Amino acid sequence: MNIAIYMTRSGTTFPDSPAIAKGTTVLRTYGELAKRVSSLAYVFRNLFKLEPGDRVALTLSNCPEYLELLYACWHAGLVAVPINAKLHQNEFAYILSNSEAKICFSSHELVETIATIENDLLKAVIDISSENYERFFEHNALPLVSRESGDPAWIFYTSGTTGKPKGAVISHHNILMSSYCYFADVDQKSPWRTILHPAPLSHGSGFYALAHVMQASCQVIPESNSFDVDEVFRLIEYWPAAVFFAAPTMLKRMLDYPADTDTSNLKTIIYGGGPMYLEDCLAGIERYGPKFAQLYGQGESPMTITALSSRVHAQTDHPRWHQRLSSVGTPQSAVQVRIADEEGQHLPNGRVGEVLVRGGTVMSGYWRNQDATMQVLRNGWLHTGDHGVFDDDGFLTLKDRSKDLIISGGTNIYPREVEEVLMKHPDIAEVAVIGRPDREWGESVIAYVVPSTNKEIDERALDSFCVENIARFKKPKSYYKLDKLPKNNYGKVLKTRLREMEQENKKKLP
Q: What are the CA-CA distances from residue 316 to residues 143, 267, 278 (Å)?
């Protein structure tokens, strides 16, 4: 079963319905979009000679071309590799090499960066703003290529504790189940008419775009191609039954926005990707009404572990309403979720343990990384690395993320990635990176460093060094100098002690 069939169906059944808009301007109907998808699929197979299962990389900021490229990959039987446009060149290079992508489509501002990467397998880097790209749509339509439901469709690269991204292999069946969960558990009420995309299409917003293709909803790309508070409010005023996905930091900026705007068109804000403070959730409900839904998921089970529906957000008279708003909801319809101890044994309600998931949305494994796959997929369950507890009503509350994972602005950052870069700097002998609670971003990156002999720490130099080697959003916000890192008897750094130092609000280290 090829997930691209839903684009074909919408193009046939609702050919005149608006499909893609930039700001308030409709650019394509579903009839037009489906035709462009099939023509582009023809180019993949006949001009570039790609075979089913070959990978196509998308290094794009949000743009109208995103969905046509994504669905053209699937229509042609290929595997899409969406890549976060904010990554560093080194990270682009690794993902392109690891996925063995044959073609890369890129936003204009990234073309030069991608083109300078040495990669013998990459046949072409194509600027989506070029005339050559538009000529692709002069070609014939390609019939939909048949695929099995378990065939890979999307490789989602997540950060990893080894410092290298891991590619979660998401199948056509996984995407279908995730889309069904969207309607069953997250956005339950019709009509489904508009989805705004201020959040990256390479991540959660892109996954929710797929469910809206099923309903022939209009996909609205902001003029800014990103999140701008003023623009989001203007789009809400214009577009009916508007839904969008937002990281908690985005919602916080909306709550801080002073203007009294008309949000009667707003249907649902779906938040996830990081912790939401209870007071912010309550403030949002007071301002906009119970137009909220929360999700908890991972790249390995995209957008689909638990959900907290708008119905629960509206239950103000429930005696445990605040407790429920502080949770991440109940298991979504296509998965089973349980809490387990270190041996994987089930724990009863009220006991804290690791969150385990299995079901139709869980990845088949990591792309060409059997060791990592075996670590997280054991005995039929995905071991999330997150810790939580179920209450007697079936609501899951997360107690701690994976002990090292930092979530800043809805984006996952593993300290090991930052540590490995900083350890290359000649002025640093040791380093440990942790997350600090941050009101705006959820968490910020903090580095504790031990300098080399007779060396002082130059924060500006370290900032420049990080920007040269990793994505800017992974750069530490603060550096603290230590004579030595706290360690146990085995020489392992005690990050728990560093976190305690943060919590105790000790004096700022020299």
A: 51, 19, 14
Question: Which residues, listed in sequence order, are joined to residue 382 by a DSSP beta bridge?
Answer: 357, 377
**Average pLDDT over the chain, rounded to an integer:** 92
Three-state secondary structure call for residue 422: helix
**pLDDT digits 0-9 by tens, 346-366:** 999 999 899 999 999 999 999
> For residue 416, what pLDDT is reported?
78
The DSSP code for 393 is: T
Query: What one-character DSSP code corresponds to residue 472?
Result: G
**Residue of 378, 396, 394, 374 lying closest to 386 (CA atoms):** 396
Higher per-residue confidence, 454 vs 500: 500
Confidence of residue 500 (pLDDT cuts 50, 70, 90): confident
CATH 3.30.300.30 assigned to domain 406-503? The reply is: yes
The tens digit of pLDDT for each residue in 119-135 reads 999 999 999 999 999 99
Domain boundaries, the chain: 406-503
Give the whole-angstrom CA distance, residue 6 versus residue 71. Answer: 9
Say which DSSP state 78 is in. Answer: -
Does 457 have pLDDT greater than 50? Answer: yes
Within 10 Å of residue 145's Cβ, how many Cβ atoms?
Answer: 16
Residue 509 in this model has a pLDDT that exceeds 60: no
> Residue range 310-336: average pLDDT?
96
Cα–Cα distance for residue pair 475/86, rounded to 1 Å: 13
- For the chain, the distance separating the N- and C-terminal CA atoms, rounded to the nearest angstrom, is 60
Rounded Cα distance, 353 and 8, in Å: 44
CB atoms under 10 Å from CB of 12, counted, come to 11
Give me the amino acid identity at 231. Answer: E
Report how far residue 111's alpha carbon sits from residue 115's, in angstroms, rounded to the nearest whole number.
6
**The pLDDT of residue 162 is above 50:** no
Phi-psi sector, 163: left (phi>0), alpha (psi -120 to 50), beta: left
Distances (CA, A) of 275 to 161, 317, 416: 21, 24, 21
**Cα-based angle 263, 266, 271 (whole degrees, multiple of 5):** 115
